[in-house]
C-alpha cells in the first residue's frame, strides 16, 4: 500500500514576507463557574516560570507567503478534509473556508482545501522559514506514502459493509502527527468532548510562537517541551483543565527526565512493537491503554493500533463479535476487540477502525444511506423532517395572509 510521493510543484514565493496581522486579546478557557481570567497568573509557590501566550510573530526570521494555491497531487478519494480533520484525530486544525482547513506544522502555517469542482487537494503556505521544508512536513503529516484507495479496495474484497461505507466516506485519512503534540492533545481528551478539548488545546497552543491569523483564527507553533515545562498546574487548573492539569505537568516532567530528551524518546517509539509502545506510554501520568493507542495510531506509525472505548466496543459487538453484545466491556475484552480488528483488517486495522468510527458519528450519518442508521436515528430524522415540514407549512400560510 506504499505509494511514491507525488512531485508536487511549489507555489510561487512572494517577494515580501508575510506581516502578522493584529491579534485579538487572549483569554483563558471558561472555568466551571463560567468566569474568565487572563493568563497573567501569579504563583509564588510554584518553581516554574509563569508563561504567557504569544500574540505577535517573532521578528527577524526568514518567512515566505505564497500568493497562489498549488496542487498537492491527491484526489478526494485519497484525502477528504471534512472526514479527516474534524473527526477526533487532531484538535488544532481550523475550518477556514468551505472544504478548507488551516493549521501549523512546526514553524509552518499552511491551509489545505478540496477543490469545489473536482475535489482534488490544494495547499497554500501562509508562513514558513522554508517552502520546501513546509511541503516536506505536510506530506509527512498526511502519511502520503500510504495509498488510501488501494487499502480500501483490499478491505472491500472481504467486507461488503466496509465496501459500501468506503464509497460514501472516501478520503478519511489517518494523520501522522508530531508525537509530543499528539500526546498533549489526548491528555486533554480524557472524559471530554471535542469542543472542550479544542479549547484546552488552543490554550496550550497559544503558549507557542504566534505565526499568523487566518480568517479570524490565531495560529501558533506548538510549544516545545521546554516551553511546556514552564506551565504550572495552577495555571492549567484556572484555565479549566481540572484534574487533567496534573497529568499534563506530570507528563512533561516525566518526559524531561528521559535520557536524550522527551521528544527524542517519543519519536524513538516509532521503531518499536505496538505492545512496547503502549506499555511505555502508559508509564506517563494520565495515559491509559486507550489514550496510548490513540497516540500510537495517530503519531507513532502503529497502523494496527485500536483505541477501544464504548463507541468502538459497540461497533465490534455489532459487526465483529456479536456473541459479546450483552457483555460489559472490561480491560481484558479491550484486547480481544483489538485482536478482532487486526484479524479482519491486518496491519492497517487502525485505519479501517477509523473509518468505521467516523461512520458512527452523528455529523457524518447524513452522508450515508438510511439503512446504515439505527432505529432511533431514523426516528430522530423523521421527527426533524416533520418539524421542518410543519414550519414550512406555517411559513407558507403566514405569507399568504
UniProtKB/TrEMBL annotation:
Region Disordered, residue ranges: 1-36, 379-401
Biased composition (Low complexity): 26-36
Listed Polar residues bias regions: 388-401
EC category: lyase
GO aspect biological process, one term: base-excision repair, AP site formation
Highest taxon listed in the record's lineage: Eukaryota
CDD domains on file: ENDO3c
Keywords: DNA damage, DNA repair, Glycosidase, Hydrolase, Lyase, Multifunctional enzyme, Nucleus
E.C. code: 4.2.99.18
Record's GO cellular component terms: nucleus
Gene3D superfamilies reported in the protein's UniProt record: 3.30.310.40, Helix-hairpin-Helix base-excision DNA repair enzymes (C-terminal), Hypothetical protein, domain 2
Compartment(s): Nucleus
Catalytic activity: 2'-deoxyribonucleotide-(2'-deoxyribose 5'-phosphate)-2'-deoxyribonucleotide-DNA = a 3'-end 2'-deoxyribonucleotide-(2,3-dehydro-2,3-deoxyribose 5'-phosphate)-DNA + a 5'-end 5'-phospho-2'-deoxyribonucleoside-DNA + H(+)
Domain named HhH-GPD: residues: 188-361
Keyword Disulfide bond assigned: no
SUPFAM superfamilies recorded: DNA-glycosylase, TATA-box binding protein-like
GO molecular function term, any single one: damaged DNA binding
Main location: nucleus
PANTHER family in UniProt: 8-OXOGUANINE DNA GLYCOSYLASE, N-GLYCOSYLASE_DNA LYASE
Similarity remark: Belongs to the type-1 OGG1 family.
Name the record gives this protein: DNA-(apurinic or apyrimidinic site) lyase
